């Protein structure tokens, strides 16, 4: 049995698949969207984690199994949504900044005007775009650096530290000089 978690922009869907690929359990819940200013979009990281845990438990119960019977978990998420959390407590420091958030649009335009777009792509493999998570790391409360908070895609906040994190879905915490 596999638990699939689709953590989307407006809600979380969990499905339990059996060995033949049939859906055995399903659950869904929305979570609150926060719009503190025009163009800004945030989510409460603790709420996302609570909703995800609840919906996963509901899908597992609907499948009529115990969580220990799962063979694996697959996660799909927003990827460019970022959240910072305290290294010691593991608690989020601020709402997650959602991929739709436009507050880095001016900085993206400045970097493009300065001719740094190709350099950013070469150093990071990323496109300069306000929807991307790269420049969101410059925003408070991230302040990345030695001993600072940890920033990452939502899928890694709240999970045990021993959980393997696929490199393709983890925010680059080595902040490139090309955008500073």
| Helix content, binned percent | 10-25%
Radius of gyration, taken over Cα atoms and rounded to an integer in Å: 18 Å
Low-confidence stretches: 153-175
- The count of domains is 2
The CATH architecture of the largest domain can be given as 2-Layer Sandwich
Q: What do you see in this structure?
A:
This protein has 3 helices and 8 strands. The protein is of the alpha+beta class and 180 residues long. Residues 153-175 have low confidence and may be disordered. The strands form 3 sheets. The chain has a 4-stranded mixed sheet with strand order 3-2-1-5, covered by helices on one side. Strands 4-7 form a two-stranded antiparallel ribbon. Helix content is 19%, strand content 21%. The longest helix has 18 residues, at 45-62. The protein has helices at residues 45-62, 105-113, 117-124; strands at residues 2-7, 11-17, 23-30, 42-43, 72-76, 82-85, 96-97, 150-153. β2 (11-17) and β3 form a beta hairpin.
Relevant terms:
single chain; 3 helices; 180 residues; 4-stranded mixed sheet; elongated; 2 domains; alpha+beta; two-stranded antiparallel sheet; Nucleotidyltransferase, domain 5
Write the layout of secondary structure elements.
Layout: E1 2-7, E2 11-17, E3 23-30, E4 42-43, H1 45-62, E5 72-76, E6 82-85, E7 96-97, H2 105-113, H3 117-124, E8 150-153
In short:
With 180 residues, this protein is an alpha+beta fold.
């Amino acid at each position: 049995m596999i638990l699939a978690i689709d953590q989307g922009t407006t809600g979380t869907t969990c499905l339990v698949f059996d060995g033949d690929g049939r859906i055995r359990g399903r659950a869904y819940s929305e979570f609150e969207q926060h719009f503190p200013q025009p163009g800004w979009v945030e989510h409460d990281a603790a709420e996302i984690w609570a909703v995800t845990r609840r919906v996963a438990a509901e899908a597992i119960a609907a499948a009529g199994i115990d969580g220990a019977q799962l063979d694996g978990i697959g996660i799909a998420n927003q990827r460019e949504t970022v959240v910072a959390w305290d290294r010691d407590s593991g608690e989020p420091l601020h709402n997650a900044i959602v991929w739709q958030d436009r507050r880095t649009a001016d900085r993206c335009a400045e970097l493009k005007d300065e001719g740094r777009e190709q350099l950013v792509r070469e150093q990071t493999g990323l496109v300069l775009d306000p929807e991307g998570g790269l420049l969101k790391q410059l925003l408070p409360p991230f302040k990345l650096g030695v001993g600072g908070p940890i920033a990452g895609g939502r899928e890694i906040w709240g999970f045990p530290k021993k959980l393997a994190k696929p490199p393709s879905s983890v925010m680059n915490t080595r902040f490139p000089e090309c955008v500073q």
